Amino acid sequence: MLNDLRFAFRLLLKNPAFTAVAVIAIALGIGANTAVLSLVNALLIRPLPYRDPARMVLMLEHFRAQHLDAIPVSAPEFVDYQTNCRTLEKMAVFQPGTFNFAGGDRPERIFGAVGSADLFNVLGVAPIRGRAFEAADCTPGHDDVLIISERLWKRRFDGDPQIIGSKIVANGRGFTIVGVMPASFEFPIPLFGIQGAQFGERADVWQPLAFTAQEMKIRYSRGYAIVARLAQDVSAKQAQAELDPVTATMRKNYPDNYPQNDSFGITAFPLNEVVLGPMKPLLLILLAAVFLVLLTLLLGRGDGVCFARSWSKAFFSPFAAGSPEFSSESGDSICSSA
User: CA 284 to CA 280: how far, in whole Å?
Assistant: First the structure.
């Protein structure tokens, strides 16, 4: 075996320029493949970090005459959908937000979201400490509780085991921490493509959403997205068939707020499709391109074939002793003729 290794290194030293190019090409190819495969695994293979994500939909309104295809909903519209849809087991509304934490070593601006009482029930993920939101939290004057991520708990609070019940100040208000979500939990996902909303960072704080009386009177003030869980054995298409009459009733009951045609409506998008969107074919193309480039670098030139044959001869000759195909002279003649 030692002689085989010496022979292999001698072959490499005969052509150092080619050896350097080959090693760099292989290293770059392996790095690119690793990066692309990691991305494909995260977005195409690994399921979303929620319970039974195939049953989840993201609901967004549209005004097609105005070329608005995916816009948030208003508070009274959410209540209409929640009241009239039976094909949806649960639904919740959410909105991105930022929280300016005071105290501690330094102030900090943290990305997060506000959500209605059923948000974590819809997602099917429970806190690892404390509790999720309750209905009482989502009433005016009682929304002064927060749920934080495990990442934030460990980073800012040093994993304090007494974190539940702790008082903090954020956005100039006093809050009580009532729960800690697992590190794998992520919501909203930055890839959500909602017109008029930005999800550019990972959320680490969640606050219960309390609609005000004034907000419930304004149907055109749209700032929320709806996430819902389909009832058992119900498809997104069946849920859509139930949603269309609801929007038709809204147009009839509030003619001053909606165009009297099918320009206005709401769409239930399967959550998996929303996250990937147009990225799926691009990811597959990128994956194929990386493999093709690596294959071309290794086998596209005669030198590459020679290199492969030389290594084969060096390492497999002990298993083919006496065979002229694997002899040193045979290998050299192949390379010289390439």
Answer: 6
